[in-house]
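User: Structure please.
Assistant: Input sequence and predicted structure:
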Amino acid sequence: MAFGGLPHGADEDTPVFVISVAAQLSGLHAQTLRSYDRMGLVSPGRTAGGGRRYSMRDIALLREVQRLSQEAGVNLAGIKHIIELENQVEALRNRVAELTEELAAAYAAAEHAAAAVHASYRKDLVPIRHETALVVWKPKRTGKQ
């Protein structure tokens, strides 16, 4: 087992805990976890046989559901809405980060292209003198008037 009680190579999103362990870690009853799963508040991973497997992120979410319910007095429908909004905010943050990276790459590519164009300028161009002259033009008069 790795530090924090997770198997080697597992992270906070790896579903590793059976429902009884998840219930103990979250301080909730296993039946409450089943109920939250049916309501869509927490969606644990599933084994091939259909057994629930909870990740550390799921455990943290279960604790947050309990906190919102008991300390803040939010009902389960409200908690579900809060979770959905938090997920949307996280998805938008990730998209903004992706777009920021794409924009930075586009700027870098544009700067590189501009530098390449400038580097391709011929160095053997001859400078010209800039003179200003005023020429008055008078049309020739023909014999016909």
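The CA atoms of residues 135 and 141 lie 18 Å apart.
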